[in-house]
Write a structure and sequence with these properties.
The complex is a heterodimer of chains A (about 400) and B (about 280). Chain A has 3 helices and 29 strands. Chain A has about 400 residues and is mainly β. Chain B starts with 15 loop residues before the first strand and ends with a strand. Classes of the chains: A mainly beta (about 400), B mainly beta (about 280).
Amino acid sequence: MRVCITFLFVASLFCLNAAPCVAQTFSPPPLFFTGMDGILISDGGMEIPIWGYGLSSNGYITAPGPLLEYETGDEVNLAFVNNSAESHTIHLHGLDVNQANDGVPTTSFLVIQDEVGAYEFTASEPGTFLYHCHVTTTLHLTMGMYGMILVRHPGGVLFEGGPSYYADAPLLFSDLEIATNLDPVQSYPFHDIRPDYFMVNGRSGSQLETGSSGLPGDPGTILSCPNGESLALRLGSMAYTLTKVIIPAELGAMCYMSDGRPVPTPFGVEELEIYPGERFTILISPDAEYDGTIEVQSWDMVNEEYVHSNFVRIRDAALNIGEPQIQEPLSLSISPNPSRDFISVNSNDGRDLADWTIYHASGKMISNGYANSPSMRIDISFFESGSYIFESINGSQKYRARFVR
Amino acid sequence: MKNCIRFALIIFGINLNVNGYAQDTLWINTGDWHQSQDTMSVLRFNETAVFDTSNVALSTSADASLFLTVINTDTEPHAFGVDGIWTFDGEILPNDTTSFEIPPMAMGTYRYFSSDLRGVYLGLSGVMKVGLNMPNQFHWNLADYMPERMDSISSGGELLDEEAYVPRYFSINSYTYPHTAMDANGYVTFALGDTCTISIVNSGLMDHVLHFHGFHVEYLSTTIQTSRIGWIKDTIPLKQGEGVTLLLIANQEGIYPVHNHNLIAVTNSGFYPGGMITLINITP
């Protein structure tokens, strides 16, 4: 059993003190934060405001938030700092945590502005789970405050005595009503929210292949698997619609788990309904040279009408066109931070900063250049007030840090 | 009346098992249901002639017919059936009394209801529990309401199918949160280490999906998604008309919500929190 500590962090206005890892068996996960100033770039290029969770190493929030990964038996201390304008929580959906850690404001606790919240639980069961804010839930979820949790079982099997598999493929289905996100303050009443933008892992339409979400390093979602191996589709819904997943018969899909528990009798799947909040774990085994798609349909739950389809591409890894791999970026030193006029950036490892780019927290590129030294000074006096990400790439190594003007 | 058994003696509101059968009596009553700024005319199956806002839950054994007497105090005739199981092939006329025999059913939870237009839109639909013997039993009758349609139908108007269905209220046993905590049948409370069954029917006009905080539950029965019997889950979809029996084991104490995870349904006339939220309270 491991003990892991995750820290949710809201903004770099706070000094980041990495929470201690009680057991030294592995490094703690990256630090987290929440915020309400994010932008999701739609498939058509529209900037949609989002609220959400993010990794402090990335410096921006996303919808969905970062994938949280644990191992069966892990004792987790999940903490986050909230300096956004509203109170937030984290509900650990399906993990059956006790009342104190349930993330419901009336029965657990609120994390108000500028305060830290910590949730303690044991990841006692392997499976696919979710997390989301439980404050004014109807609004905060459509704004993007959710993510997926994977609890893996040791030994490369889905669960004790379960089938082995090659790799996980988390697919989180969600949606939003654009008008609500554009004006959340005036979004009441909530009973008539009808989503009109539909996502898989926060991407839609062509973004699922090209990765053109506007976020730095977005790789898209193309799932590849070596012939003869099984890929574990970790399917979950945070949508306001019914999701129907259509899986080609030649993938030989078998459902082994739902809601973090094995199903008594695994069954073949060609069409699967996933209601909001449900999760399923399905193994697929693409044949040699397989290149096809899984269709993800969204259906209006009130009037039972089909509204949209997204497609997730599955390819035999031998075709060598799998999902690009991102190298985990190293941290930079930025000072002073916050700053109004200038920042000094240092790569910390003596390597040149090389190609550098500054992004607004929304993902918009603000400035870029090239540096033949490990440190540099940058004029930010003309930047608007807000959160920014400095990112540089030297060969295969990426560096990233967040600053506030 | 053909295919109907009339009883000389009506046993008011009592479910008896006598010589291998049970008998019960229902009244179809009309009344008003008040929510936020709306007052809706509704129909209910009650166990007396006095209107109550909740449809009464019927309970019978699995190996016996149920002889049911229904007294219709409404101004319109009504159909009667057990969803997917059995349908009375006549009508229960206004201000009339009709009796019939419902054949034995397998253990589980079923929706009994009136399938005519007034019955469907004005909420004439309830929980029928069959063969459930556990000491701790609760039931949730889920429903959704669009006041504008209800007004039209209760006043004798036509259903305008071309208009989108936009429900504004979502209830459990005719209670909306936070009032669900006052419902003895729906507010689940019992002791740590004990077990209970929860019988759920979807009487609404759309599918619903309930998420349990703090617990997984086991499907003991379901009338539609039968392949799920034996599954252990925390999120339970209920299709229109579906009846589900769940087993809950109280393995930790505390207060935990259960709510619709189609989050438009945790509102009252659009305002959060409300609607389809109730609580599980496990005592030490």
